[in-house]
Amino acid sequence: MAQKELLRKKLVYWFVLVFTLFSAAANAGVLVLINGDRISGELIVITDGQLRWQSDMAGEIVVPQINVVSIEARDLFQVELDAHRQLSECQLQIRGDNAQLLNCKEGEAPLNSWKQVTKVSARPLIKRDIWQHTGYISASAKDAAGNTNEQDLELDLKVSARRGSVRHTVIATYDEQTQSELKTRDDLRFEYQYDHFFSDKWYVNGLGSWERNVFQSLESRKLLGGGLGYQFFDTDLIRLSVDGGVGYETEEYANNDNRKAMVFRESTDFTYQLNALGLQFFHRNTYLQLFDRNGDWRVQTETGFKLPVIGRLTAQAKLKFDYANIPADEAHAMDRIWLFGLNYDW
Q1: Across residues 110-115, what is the average pLDDT?
Q2: Are 87 and 108 in contact (CB under 8 A)?
Q3: Secondary structure of residue 140 in the 3-state scheme
């Protein structure tokens, strides 16, 4: 009799244990990666492009955010999307075909890619009432010897500071070229842009720029303008903004052939992280259409790749392409150059 009672207690114990394990497994979260792996466990946090996950089998693991397809989690999370929009008390749910859904206090929000997310935390997120700074300093060069002796040097600085609905951006560029020990290029340019966001993604802006080009006899080119812009994405993994507007430009030349005109301006700034190693593709362009004479327009583009080296230091290869439909006297319409260098990003 005592043996039967002991056997019954053992059966009940094992039944409860198995039921508990199966229930825990059924309620556990699921992390789906781009290679098809499905890892059970619970989300800890997503920040700085990294996801920390408490795996049922392997303990705490760290996964690059770029490798995440979808997440199912039991807890409620605070989510910060690109453009600094914050959602609270979010359930992370997986729909058919591993599509991601954020079921939040503010309503349901489908998520096309985790690249659009800046941070996820079970704790309340910090309000965006402090300055957030991003930017880079870069030095790029080209050195050719043989039939043509040519040295090119370009120094770039970009600093952007945002707090709430206000963003300030400063850009400075210096470009020098020497051929057979004779200087053939000496360009300097500064730009300041003020953006005011009146929604999550839309903003109005005002800008001013100054540049000089010694070998085109351009002593000064000044532009004052403003317009409207749209911030499609703004995270560590993907950034895309487009803005356009009108302005007033004045040009002063050494031969006194000065010029003033209304202009239309469009610019695009795009950065996209391609893999977990941090390889980035970037493209920036500015298009200007002058209204004082037909067919007078110019475009400046910068396209390339960046790869982390150590810490905040990255290697860079880029193609600069400038085209002026009506160039200055004794100047070529097209200017194209490959440059290689180093960046310091923050």
Answers
A1: 85
A2: no
A3: strand
Answer yes or no: is 236 within a domain.
Answer: yes
Q: What residues contact residue 73 under an 8 Å CB cut-off, 6+ apart? A: 29, 42, 43, 91, 92
Q: Are residues 263 and 115 in the same domain?
A: no
Per the prediction, the chain carries an average pLDDT of 84
Tell me which long-range contacts 72-76 makes (C-beta under 8 A, separation of at least 24). Answer: 72/29, 72/30, 73/29, 73/42, 73/43, 74/27, 74/28, 74/29, 74/42, 75/42, 75/43, 75/122, 76/122
Identify the domain boundary among 78, 96, 121: 121
Q: Amino acid letter at 295?
A: G
Q: Is 97 inside any structural domain?
A: yes
Query: Can you list the alpha helix ranges (DSSP code H) found in the chain?
Result: 2-27
Report the distance separating Cα 264 and Cα 299, nearest Å: 12
Domain range for 181: 132-345
Task: Please indicate, yes or no, if residue 3 is contained in any of the structural domains.
Answer: no
Q: Give the pLDDT confidence score for residue 173 in this predicted structure.
A: 93
8 belongs to a structural domain: no
- Give the pLDDT of residue 20: 38
Give the mean pLDDT of 184-196. Answer: 92
> Whole-model pTM above 0.85?
no
CA distance 316 to 284: 14
Q: What integer pLDDT is reported at residue 125 of this predicted model?
A: 62
pLDDT digits (tens, 9 = 90+) for 259-279: 889 999 999 999 999 988 889
